[in-house]
Amino acid sequence: MEHPPPASAGKVFGDRLDLAARYVEHLATSGVERGLIGPREADRLWDRHVLNCAVVADLVPDSAKVVDVGSGAGLPGIPLALARPDLRIVLVEPLARRVEWLVEIVEDLGLSLTVERGRAEENVIRRRWEGADVVTARAVAPLARLAAWSLPLLRTGGRLLAVKGASAPEEIDRDAAEVRRLGGGTPWIEHCGAGIVDPPSTVVAVEREGRPAGRSRKKRST
């Protein structure tokens, strides 16, 4: 095995650690060859990518319906599925070459995931996957734009969990008012995976509270 898992990976993946290691090898080989992962990332796939995403599972309710938008190389959707087989996950990705790769990997790992080609903001995607408990995203878009795409996919009380970096507080300061206008609550930061990844993963969370401001359901004519 060219990329052996760190000891902490066993705490996250349990008896699915071998599957997680197989996923890492896919990322390091065909993922790099087909442009889903940068070649310089191959030596830090476990901590920077796979574990960094998998620890977000601590924020996801049992048996939740999860929509992973802009899934790319399956991050964070596939690590979440490996860590939490109880979750019902769909990977939404617009680029055909990435979708093809995702389908191959999901089949090879034997995961019960759905891979959907499309964009979160498209009506067909919203109609098909609305009512989600959780929407996840990683390195997809600034917070306000991500909220505009993601909040319509969530049930009231559902949460957007966006894996972010050190700029998360600044994004919240800049975009919180727009997020609230879109029907979300005030964004907040969660830190996941202390003792497993260093530094812990930074997640911006937003709860869907209602309909976007300025929009109301049309009254039926009598």
UniProtKB/TrEMBL annotation:
<feature type="binding site">
    <location>
        <position position="70"/>
    </location>
    <ligand>
        <name>S-adenosyl-L-methionine</name>
    </ligand>
</feature>
<keyword id="KW-0489">Methyltransferase</keyword>
<comment type="similarity">
    <text>Belongs to the methyltransferase superfamily. RNA methyltransferase RsmG family.</text>
</comment>
<protein>
    <recommendedName>
        <fullName>Ribosomal RNA small subunit methyltransferase G</fullName>
        <ecNumber>2.1.1.-</ecNumber>
    </recommendedName>
</protein>
<keyword id="KW-0949">S-adenosyl-L-methionine</keyword>
<dbReference type="InterPro" id="IPR029063">
    <property type="entry name" value="SAM-dependent_MTases_sf"/>
</dbReference>
<comment type="function">
    <text>Specifically methylates the N7 position of a guanine in 16S rRNA.</text>
</comment>
<dbReference type="InterPro" id="IPR003682">
    <property type="entry name" value="rRNA_ssu_MeTfrase_G"/>
</dbReference>
<dbReference type="Pfam" id="PF02527">
    <property type="entry name" value="GidB"/>
</dbReference>
<keyword id="KW-0698">rRNA processing</keyword>
<keyword id="KW-0963">Cytoplasm</keyword>
<feature type="binding site">
    <location>
        <begin position="120"/>
        <end position="121"/>
    </location>
    <ligand>
        <name>S-adenosyl-L-methionine</name>
    </ligand>
</feature>
<feature type="binding site">
    <location>
        <position position="75"/>
    </location>
    <ligand>
        <name>S-adenosyl-L-methionine</name>
    </ligand>
</feature>
<feature type="binding site">
    <location>
        <position position="138"/>
    </location>
    <ligand>
        <name>S-adenosyl-L-methionine</name>
    </ligand>
</feature>
<keyword id="KW-0808">Transferase</keyword>
